[in-house]
Amino acid sequence: MMVVALSGCGQNQNQVLQPQSGTNAFAVLGPPPTADSNIPLSITPSTAKASSTKNRALIYQGPGACEDGCTAAAYEMALRNGFVPTYVGPTALDPKSTDADRAQLFQNVAIWIQPGGKSSDVLQAMTLEMVSALQGFVKNGGGYVGFCAGAFSSTNLVGTTTIPGYNIFPGKTILYVNPNNADILDVTWEGKLRHLYWEGGPYITELPAGQATPIAYYPSGQIAAARSSYGTGKVFITGLHPEAPQFWRDYYGLTDSDGLDYDLADEMISWVTH
What we know:
It is built from seven helices and eleven strands. By secondary structure, the chain is an alpha/beta fold. It is globular, with a radius of gyration of 17 Å.
């Protein structure tokens, strides 16, 4: 079992970002919506395949998840890796839920994908029962991948706030400082230069020795992606958006010289599900 997350990130639900020159939209909710958010993103299936028994992916959808394509992008990444995606809300389990309800929600689930958005809003919307179930899912062999806000959500506290996170990843997450609302950054990913979409995501710091492995670095040298274990499960987080579709770049007029980075999202999903 495993978990993953995506764009338009931030830790503070009250944060307001000013539009970049030449735009009249705010980045606080992430990239703009398409005419139909259900339109497929022209995804080519990955060579990675889901397990025949654990073939489902849960994708968070609710308060804090940006409404402008973040959940759709997460959905498509799961789909291209051979999983059967299902959206799940923050109150799917509540104090009245039974063990049978919990078992049914996570039946045959291999991965949880936490999309981009506002992590503080996500954690304030999640019931205690949902947080506990997610922790138990990963601890007992599940996987978690967090993109941007999903990285903020994974640690003990959401970024530098006092809001409790999922507490399934060691260390801390802090907003990566960039003068632009969205950007293409020169990132070193496993020793190779890659150009990745970024929008308000964190860097990862204070990793306890031997408990997590840095995978990618921002131009500043700060950690942009890392992976770890939680119980018998796996967690892979990044402050970047390897799942970002082309229209996110187009909206901000960004040039990405090496194109889409779905292969890195595939890598994250594959690592936590194998």
